[in-house]
Amino acid sequence: MVKINTCVFISGKGTNLKKLILNSLNYNFPIKIKLIVCSNKYADGLKFAKKWSIPYFIFDNKNTLSEKKVLTQLKNKKINIILLAGYMKILSKRFIRSFGKSILNIHPSLLPKFKGLNTFENILKKQEKKTGCTVHFVTEKLDEGNIILKRSFYIDKKDDVKSLKKKTQNLEYNAFSEAIIKLFR
Ligand code: GRF
User: Fold this and answer.
1) Closest residue CA from atom 3 of ligand 1
2) Which of 106, 110, 177 to probe ligand 1 with, by most ligand atoms within 8 A of CB?
3) Ligand 1-lining residues (CB < 6 angstroms)
4) Measuring from atom 10 of ligand 1, which residue has the nearest CA?
5) 8-state DSSP, 55
6) pLDDT per residue over 130-173, tens digit each?
7) How many CB atoms lie within 10 A of CB 76?
8) Per-residue confidence (pLDDT) for residue 143, from 0 to 100
9) pTM assigned to the model
10) Residue 178 has what pLDDT?
């Protein structure tokens, strides 16, 4: 099958990235990960780039030259889609416009609820009954683009930030791949 050239952006542990790489190795999965962009040179997630020999680039999003370099690499590698998998920085409007193709993000709440940071703390404070994750298109407004899919679960009285995070991340691992299949297969 012809696979879509994909770049994944990360900042931390990269557990979503790992799942995406493993799925992408499957013949029927519609993406090929050709580049990893990371906001932090010490990020744990870079070990997955090294393990599977995927080229990676450390991106300082506050630096215009670094932004230009990423855009050049995206062009050279003919990247058609960017997946933000735990990328904790905000992409500039200029970057989003210059790339000009689809960018997808995974967010650990049921959008439009709980945009931005400190998601789990805020969910617990509001005593929500349900939570989950959302895969959506990235636009110039934070956590605002069209939603591709959401996955949810009921919050237990005993849940705390740590357990909510764990349950949400377990949902995320399949949700991101399901969203890709929904869009491209
Ligand atoms: C995920 O929970 C994602 O929703 C959030 O950052 C976390 C990244 O985890 N934006 P990892 O780096 O994929 O392990």
Assistant:
1) 86
2) 106
3) 10, 12-17, 45, 85-86, 106-108, 169, 172
4) 86
5) -
6) 999 999 999 988 778 999 999 999 999 999 999 999 999 999 99
7) 10
8) 77
9) 0.96
10) 97
Ligand 1, atom nearest to 165 Cα: 2
Domain count, the chain: 1
In sequence order, which residues have a C-beta less than 8 Å from that of residue 83 and are 6 or more positions away? 6, 7, 8, 9, 20, 31, 103, 104, 105, 106, 176, 180
**How many of the other CB atoms lie within 10 Å of CB of 118?**
10
112 preceded by a cis bond (ω within 30 of 0): yes
Gap from CA of 75 to ligand 1 centroid (Å): 26
> Which atom of ligand 1 is nearest the CA belonging to 14?
12
Q: Residue 57: which CATH number?
A: 3.40.50.170
How far apart CA 64 and CA 173 sit, in angstroms, is: 32
Centroid of ligand 1 to alpha carbon of 147 (angstroms): 18
Amino acid at 183: L
CA-derived radius of gyration, the chain: 16
Structure-token pair, residue 39: 């906001």
What integer pLDDT is reported at residue 141 of this predicted model?
85
Structure tokens at 180: 């890709």
Predicted pLDDT of residue 119 = 96
Q: How far is ligand 1, taken at its centre, from the CA of residue 130, in Å?
A: 19
User: Which domain, by its residues, includes 100?
Assistant: 4-184
